[in-house]
Amino acid sequence: MSRGIDYGNLMHQAMRGLIKTVLKGVQKDGLPGAHHFFITFDTQHPDVKIADWLSERYPEEMTVVMQHWYENLEVTDEGFSVTLNFGDAPEPIYIPYDAIKTFVDPSVEFGLRFEAADDEDDEDDEDLDLPEEDEAPEGTGKPDADVVSLDSFRK
Length: 155
Description:
By secondary structure, the protein is of the alpha+beta class.
């Protein structure tokens, strides 16, 4: 008997591969033009590495912004590490790709959202807006907007 093809999981793997490719380019050449990223991730993921005070402040999820100031971007097959500025305090963080919930580049209106299987039924046909510029200072909590669903681009 055939178990079927898990298209959802395959799509998530492909989307995470896209994030890795983009970050590798940024690691090599820096952020081109107006490109910048809002990255929301699960702070409870067992492989996430953030300072204790950040973990206490953001016990479930956190959004970071890679834009004007970041250092030491290191991209691996499993995730990436980067040092970001949190209120004039540089902090190194490590985010595995499978901890990422959203990845948005508002400069080109591009966004990815990774949903758990039980979340997909609730939001299948919902169109979402991208964050506006400067909504969340670098290294702060989630911006006040969501990510465009890939469904909104289907005809």
